[in-house]
Amino acid sequence: MAKQNIYILGIESSCDDTSAAVIQNGKVLSNVVASQKIHEAYGGVVPELASRAHQQNIVPVVDQALEKAGISKEDLSAIAFTRGPGLMGSLLVGTSFAKSLAYGLNIPLIDVNHMQAHILAHFIEEENFKKPPFPFLAMTISGGHTQIVKVNNYFDMTVIGETIDDAVGEAYDKSGKILGLGYPAGPEIDKRAQLGNPKAFPFTKPKVDGLNFSFSGLKTAILYFIQKETKAHPNFIEENLNDVCASIQYTIIGILIDKLKKASKETGIHHIAIGGGVSANSGIRKALKDGEQKFGWTTYIPKFEYTTDNAAMIAIVGYLKFLESDFAEQDVMASARLKI
């Protein structure tokens, strides 16, 4: 008997990217992302503008995802959407659209935790990409989150370490702002870091107990350092920008890897996966790969397009939940502070 085709439409609208994807039996047929450039002028995401842009983008993005997948909406088996965490106005757009479409097509609705989705993106069917075995450690690093999660099964996850203040993505963006770089600053710092000396300017790593992180102290140290140096040498930033970026990145990566080492040692788990927008950073990817030689890890790094916010990761969670008939009711509500 031929295998039944399960088509899941995933919808992601947690922050400033409107995304829709179609997955067939775990394989991505389409993954469309509409980014919002409007926030660059403000140096950060403006929630009200984000939700308005989602309203404009969601219908064309879903249309495009279905068209690229070569199916019609009548072929869909279920609709998965990001329930949270995220910006409430943005989440409401995706939630309302998903509920209406599922109701209209009379097919199941599946709610997805955005942070679980970053981790479960590793289970998208992709050639030449190995999937982590359970249990594994996942480090999710993004503009809004920094967590180490012990993953026992698809839906059995425990946060064992997280940031007590700023997320790692914020540390990059706020450092970039201090240096006069554009938003988002992460990719620019990463690019310049590759041209600079990572040990030119030593920054102190914050001392935080257990497996938790802190980045606010580092951000303040960078601010005071730049203020002091530019007072003495007005051209300090432009003359040393690559070295400063390399030193900031070296410190941030050191903080992340130190905690991962500690987590691996404490749990006895040597399978390490990363996810979230900041995992696109070349320095972090290299440090993780180096960990295979240094610490005996096996590392799992998703395809670039599945690291930032995207609907393919929502759709794969939808597929895994569909197999377990784990569906949401029509009265399901978006939640800005949804926990793993």
UniProtKB/TrEMBL annotation:
GO cellular component: cytoplasm
InterPro entries per the UniProt record, alphabetical: ATPase_NBD, Gcp-like_dom, KAE1/TsaD, Peptidase_M22_CS, TsaD
Keywords associated with the record: Acyltransferase, Cytoplasm, Iron, Metal-binding, Transferase, tRNA processing
Binding site for Fe cation: 114, 118, 309
Pfam family for this entry, one: TsaD
Localization terms from the record: Cytoplasm
Domain of life per record: Bacteria
Catalytically driven reaction(s): L-threonylcarbamoyladenylate + adenosine(37) in tRNA = N(6)-L-threonylcarbamoyladenosine(37) in tRNA + AMP + H(+)
GO biological process: tRNA threonylcarbamoyladenosine modification
Protein name: tRNA N6-adenosine threonylcarbamoyltransferase
